[in-house]
UniProtKB/TrEMBL annotation:
InterPro entries: AAA_dom, DNA_Partitioning_ATPase, P-loop_NTPase
Keywords: Plasmid
A Pfam family it matches: AAA_31
UniProt name for this protein: Putative ParA partition protein
Amino acid sequence: MLVLDMDGQGNTSSRLAPRRELEDGDYEPILTGTKTAELFAYELDGIEVMHCPCGADLIHTPKNDPDLFEMEAVPLDQAMNPARHLAELFENYDYVLIDCPPSLGRKLVAALVMSTHVACPVKLSGFAVDGVEGLLNTIIGVREAYNQDLEILGIVINDMDRSVNHDKALKSLENTVPDLLFENKIMHRPPLDTATTDGIPVWELRYGHVAAKEVEAVLEELLEKVG
């Protein structure tokens, strides 16, 4: 599997990459190979992936990478360059996972152009419906203009709690896009925060079995939709 970190924050890269311990006991990722921002160049000599301890390969983004943030200002035709550069490399993998930024823009377009399927994780809020509608409009627009084979798998409810606000937001989504909601949801669970912070699978935590079952159920549903 290949992971492409298209988010300028670089959180996926910092969790998947090898890490070294600092003197203060903290950790920093060891990042090597081609950066995601380099894929936007018109000419690229080659692509070097990073091999991660989890077994996946990674094209990385450093933390808060200014080079990748600047890609939001490039012409639309330049946002097509990553798809062109990566087409041959993608043939070497059974799955390619692209982590997109939580905002509309050139990086999202670049990711959608080279994708076969798209799933949308959504954190419930009072503006969830507005955000989903904007995202779906972007996805549909990219599909019609550049990637007619792109398939929308659906919306994954993530980090949900039992609050009244989340319940109201969920009902709004059920009324607006009922056919797109995944049956399985990921609830707010402290072990997920721990796993994300430590960069480990939640199922490796002794107290993470409930969260692990929810994550695994979503992954199984996603793979079933992919076919």
